[in-house]
Amino acid sequence: MRYPASEKLEIIRIVEQSHLPAKRTLDQLGVARRTFYRWYDRYLEGGPEALADRPSTPSRVWNRIAPEVQDQIVDMALEHSELSPRELAVRFTDEKRYFVSEATVYRLLKAHDLITSPAYTVIKAAEAFHTKTTRPNEMWQTDFTYFKIIGWGWMYLSTVLDDYSRYIIAWKLCSTMRAEDVTDTLDMALAASGCDHANVLHRPRLLSDNGPSYIAGELAEYIEANKMSHVRGAPFHPQTQGKIERWHQTLKNRVLLENYFLPGDLEQQIEAFVEHYNHQRYHESLDNVTPADAYFGRAAAIIKRRERIKRKTLEHRRLQHCKLAA
Known about the structure:
- By secondary structure, the chain is α/β, with parallel strands linked by helices.
- It has helices at residues 5-17, 22-29, 33-46, 67-79, 85-96, 102-111, 179-193, 217-225, 242-255, 263-279, 291-295, 299-325; strands at 139-149, 153-162, 168-174, 205-208, 229-232.
- Strands 3-2-1-4-5 form a five-stranded mixed sheet, with helices on both faces.
- The longest helix has 27 residues, at 299-325.
- The chain is globular and about 75 Å long.
């Protein structure tokens, strides 16, 4: 069976992110290990573009990127070393008004030895809640995660995340995980979103796990008083809250690079990263816009503008090629 390059790339990402051994994951996907590792070698060597089936005869390259543009991409990669090839491609397109693909950036950085080894993750958020959201503030996901502060003990972060946009609406660093901490975070979310005073047909629906603070009567009374509804994921199935679980992983990968001795230091770092995550970090599942862009309704205009930049860039490259070939 022949797979298109997009499916090969998806299979590679599934295997990289799976908590199961590669053999078991590939068996479930129905892909032979020899075939997979042949794809993977080509992917590591040439990036996503190398996964396409190779033609029997070479074709003329008309859309080659000019050397000065390549230098600008490398300079941006060196200046923003924390960005992935996908994020670099999107940022370059937005800032320079010149389209480059993720595969092009990957291949260029690979040639300059600027590609690090893949980041293997444990949590796979591919599975989603069975009812897809279609607008902001339709459903909020909430959960706790924990941090160790040296000399103090454990602190718990309560977060409310918008399911549609993945925007962090509100968060609170707590010393406990009681229902009162949940309601305090929800108060902040209702105020930040405007849902506490806006005249809306439906208040946000809350999605959580089955932790003690989420099944408490105090929270149920709060939900009823605020005319909200509450659904809980299946026990032992964290993928239902996959978006907020992935947020916790992303947050900890950045914040836990340092040790903390005071709650205020941790709170300051969380605040800085929430600002970065909401307003600067391009999210792949949102078509490479930020959660704030999706939450505040700017995503469609940004994606449309990028499509115009892409068409103009490809047209310019084609014209340059024709001039050189004439």
